[in-house]
Amino acid sequence: MQYQITVQGQVDASWSAWFNGLVVNSATNHADGAITTLSGQVADQAALRGILNHLWDLNLTILSVIQLETESEQT
């Protein structure tokens, strides 16, 4: 399954391996400060839980977790 996880705070892209290879993108806007989006393939619910636990351990506020449709699900 493909997921997009958005957190408040900045996570460096070099942490991608710690998040099971998810793509890490950070941006800063003046209203909310730093926002990081992690996106990519997650093997199963246990892997998703592990990623969310890592975010918790970093004391980051999770703003959203979205399961994205894959191309095969759209047809």
Helix content: 10-25%
Series of H and E elements: EEEHEH
Whole-angstrom Rg: 12 Å
Largest sheet descriptor? 4 strands, antiparallel
Share of β-strand residues: 35-45%
Number of helices: 2
Q: CATH class, please?
A: Alpha Beta
Reported by name, the CATH topology is Alpha-Beta Plaits
Low-confidence stretches: none
**Count of spatially separate domains:** 1
Structural class: alpha+beta
What's the pLDDT, averaged over the residues? Answer: 90
Number of strands: 4
Kindly, what is the distance between the CA atoms of the first and last residues, rounded to a whole number of angstroms? 16 Å
Strand numbers in spatial order across the main sheet: 2-3-1-4
Shape: globular
CATH architecture: 2-Layer Sandwich
Task: Provide a descriptive summary of the structure in words.
By secondary structure, the chain is an alpha+beta fold. It has a single domain (2-69), classed as 2-Layer Sandwich (Alpha-Beta Plaits). It has two helices and four strands. It has a four-stranded antiparallel β-sheet with strand order 2-3-1-4, covered by helices on one side. The longest helix has 13 residues, at 45-57. The radius of gyration is 12 Å and the shape is globular. It starts with a strand and ends with a helix. The relative contact order is 0.32.
List the defining traits of the structure above.
single chain; Alpha-Beta Plaits; 4-stranded antiparallel beta sheet; alpha+beta; 75 residues
Layout of secondary structure:
Blueprint (H helix, E strand, L loop, with lengths): L1 E7 L14 E7 L3 E9 L3 H13 L3 E8 L2 H4 L1
Antiparallel strand pairs: 1-3, 1-4, 2-3
